[in-house]
Amino acid sequence: MKRPLFVLLLLVAALAAFFAGRGAWRSPDVAAQSKDTLDNYILRVEIDGIAQSFFRGVEGLDVETDVLEFREGQDPTNSRKLPGPVHYRNVTLRFDPVPHGDSMWTWYTSVLQGKVAKRNMSIILATKDGKDVRRYNFFSAWPCKWTGPRQVSPSSAVPVEEVCIAYDRMERTTR
């Protein structure tokens, strides 16, 4: 009689911790290991092979393939699926405007003037000691949106700018 009550209380406590955002479904060792692992890597950005500085974050590394369904005349009850067009989500780069200078704004200004300057861009995942681990290459990239300086948090004294980059094709490579 006491055992089912104990199991029920344990389950309720685990669910409460999970929904409170404490990650009760991950062991503390795994959570600590994940944090240590992420702290050992940095993101670098290159545009036309030239290293860019001080990027705070990258978002939007998404590729999706449409699914095309069709039915064959011989099998009217089942449908077949084939890959369709590929869609690449725009990549958002967050950066400190002061050390980074005006290069992103200048690039976006060319778009505003109707002179789209397409460039090749790479986002590189590297270890803190500079060794490349993974590279995401973007071809025919160009800025499609710029967001002016804003503070990420009230405690942050450094404002952050964002630029969204559209591109035609992406490849992921390991080194």
Structure description:
The protein has 175 residues and is an alpha+beta fold. The chain has a domain of 116 residues: Hcp1-like (Pnp Oxidase, Chain A, Roll), CATH 2.30.110.20. Helix content is 25%, strand content 50%. It is built from four helices and ten strands; from the N terminus they run H-H-E-E-E-E-E-E-H-H-E-E-E-E. Strands 1, 2, 3, 6, 7, 8, 9 and 10 form an eight-stranded antiparallel sheet that branches. Strands 4-5 form a two-stranded antiparallel sheet. The radius of gyration is 23 Å and the shape is elongated. The termini are far apart. About 8% of the residues have low confidence.
- The CATH homologous superfamily of the domain at 52-71 and 79-174 is named Hcp1-like
Q: Indicate the percent of residues in helices.
A: 25-40%
* Gross CATH architecture of the domain at 52-71 and 79-174: Roll
- Which percent band covers the strand fraction? over 45%
Radius of gyration: 23 Å
- Count of DSSP-assigned helices: 4
CATH class of the domain at 52-71 and 79-174: Mainly Beta
Q: Averaging pLDDT over every residue, what do you get?
A: 79
| Largest beta-sheet details | 8 strands, antiparallel
N-C termini distance: 59 Å
- CATH level 3 topology of the domain at 52-71 and 79-174: Pnp Oxidase, Chain A
**Low-pLDDT regions:** 21-34
